[in-house]
Design a protein that fits this description.
By secondary structure, the chain is mostly helical. It has three domains: 1-87, Tetratricopeptide repeat domain (Serine Threonine Protein Phosphatase 5, Tetratricopeptide repeat), CATH 1.25.40.10; 88-155; 158-237. Helices cover 75% and strands 0% of the residues. The protein is built from 14 helices and no strands. The chain has helices spanning 3-18, 22-35, 40-52, 56-69, 74-86, 90-99, 109-122, 126-137, 142-154, 158-168, 172-185, 190-202, 206-219, 229-234. α3 (40-52) runs parallel beside α5 (74-86), α10 packs antiparallel against α11 (172-185) and α10 packs parallel to α12 (190-202). The longest helix has 16 residues, at 3-18. The relative contact order is 0.05.
């Protein structure tokens, strides 16, 4: 079997993975490994198919073989990190991440930050987790955005949650649900209402800004709206 045949096996196996036919992909990657037993990529891909099948022991064996064949293969390292996380081996995942932090500018940097956030969060190191998620969010890592938003809401950091909400969510209805939740949970904090109104005004969504102002009038009747310029401006719409 020549190189072109191996490439065809890889292409067919990748297509099967996209169709979630992981067991068939696993077999094809096994054929590739049998033909090219020194191919780190073949063993890594077989490990990935095993992982998707829930065969964690087999996945670890294949990832480690790939690393042994090519210690520079970062994908195999990240395969092992995801495996540790799937097994809830948080400390092992964090330690491996610390050993393999990619240099700034590499494509893997936001994924590293996100995975570090997952490990730290599950170890109870919430501040470290938030810092890692924030760093990933600056690189528009979508899973990190969603997790960070949940953490900020849980910790009642509503103004930062609002900023993140407007940065990551474009659907008006979905955005309003989060804004509305922040307003109701803020326990009368006028700065949260004012920030929501400010963000809606900046987005040229005047009707929603007016809705925030209306909520403030109804729920916070004693609020001095003149002290909150965005709320004051929103009452005119």
């Amino acid at each position: 079997m020549g190189m072109s045949d191996i490439s065809e096996l890889f292409n067919e196996a990748r297509a099967l993975c996209e169709q979630k036919r992981y067991s068939q992909a696993y077999e094809l990657y096994g054929q590739a490994c049998a033909v090219q037993p020194d191919s780190a990529i073949a063993w890594y891909n077989r490990g990935g198919a095993a992982f998707l099948m829930g065969l964690h022991a087999e996945a670890e064996t294949h990832y480690r073989r790939a690393r042994k064949l090519d210690p520079t293969l970062e994908e195999a390292v990240y395969g092992l990190i995801r495996l540790h996380l799937a097994r809830r081996e948080w400390t092992e995942a964090r330690d491996l991440l610390n050993e393999h932090r990619p240099p700034e500018g590499r494509a893997l940097v936001p994924e590293w930050q996100y995975l570090m956030g997952v490990a730290c969060q599950n170890l109870g190191e919430i501040e470290a987790a938030i810092a890692a998620y924030r760093a990933a969010v600056t690189r528009r890592h979508a899973p990190a955005q969603r997790v960070l938003l949940r953490l900020l809401l849980q910790r009642k950091q509503f103004t930062e949650a609002l900023d993140l909400c407007f940065a990551m969510i474009s659907d008006a209805k979905e955005r309003w649900e989060i804004v509305h939740g922040c307003l109701r949970a803020s326990e009368g904090d006028g700065s949260v209402y004012d920030r929501a109104a400010q963000l809606y005004l900046a987005s040229l969504q005047w009707a929603y800004a007016a809705r925030v102002a209306a909520y403030a009038r109804r729920l916070l009747p004693d609020l001095n709206r003149s002290a909150y310029p965005a709320l004051k401006e929103s009452t005119w719409f």
